[in-house]
Amino acid sequence: MAREQLGICAEANLHASYLLLNALDGQEKLLRYKLPLISQLLDRLSEHFSEAMLTGIVAIGSNFWSSLYPNARPAMLDAFPDLAVDEFNLSPVPIDLLIVVRADRLDVITIACQQILQLFQGLVEVQEQLQGFRYLDGRNFTGFIDTPYNPANRIKRQVALVDVAQQPIFSGGSYVYFQHLSFDQAAWHRLSQAEQEEIMGYDKVSGKALANIQQLPCSHLATIQNLNAAATVLIQSMPFYQLQRQGVIQLNFAATSEALKLRLHQRLGLSENAKGPDLLLNYHRVELSAAFFAPSISFLEQSAKD
């Protein structure tokens, strides 16, 4: 049985670092050899700092996959859709590698990132390094609980991980959409709590869905509830904060590429049953979007030997 990357379905942590890397020309063979070493590196640190709950994810960009692994490609692994609704631009960018390190100790994450970058010295260049953190009791800068509608327990694995019956080679892997969004906090705070709850579709304190009579057809929650089971995804989100901007770093995981596309189209108001774009998007600007596939550890290890 394929060994999936534990960071995909792991419980939330207090901190996370996101490394967006581009490979230098001609380094594919060395990268194939070194990518599975990341899980070994994280395992060693996890044993040494057991209280940190350290996990990680390695994902390969849709644009880079065939260069790195020319003999096999996940079904329907495509670039992030270049869609636009009104003035909302998704800003798709081709990124070769995404490495996520999560833990309850920021110092342990720092050690892990330093060792990972040392491992890949001379093979990649850092496009960006982003830092996320847990805010209050799992909320984002809207003040609302983040993703209270997320799949839980065993459903996570069904939603996020490729089934062996569908794609034996890529079983235990996951399709990934990455988005870095800035948030207009000043405009949001000019709204009353009732107006904010109408946009979100659920109660600000408890996270419980508003009664049907109160639900706006394009509320954030309504755009999710209107999806069918084939479009269910697992979301990992963390706020980020800098002096001049703040927002959210969001990872969407799914067992199929189609689920991610359906979810995105629904949120943008482009699907057949959509009533319009998610109202929450009016308060966000996408800084970067990218598509990846996070293969199983078993695939990474086997490919390093080929």
UniProtKB/TrEMBL annotation:
Transmembrane segments: none annotated. Keywords: Iron, Metal-binding, Oxidoreductase, Peroxidase. It comes from the Bacteria. Residues 47-134 form the Dyp-type peroxidase N-terminal domain. SUPFAM superfamilies: Dimeric alpha+beta barrel. Residues 138-297 form the Dyp-type peroxidase C-terminal domain. Its cofactor is heme b. One of its GO terms (molecular function) is peroxidase activity. Belongs to the DyP-type peroxidase family. This is Dyp-type peroxidase.
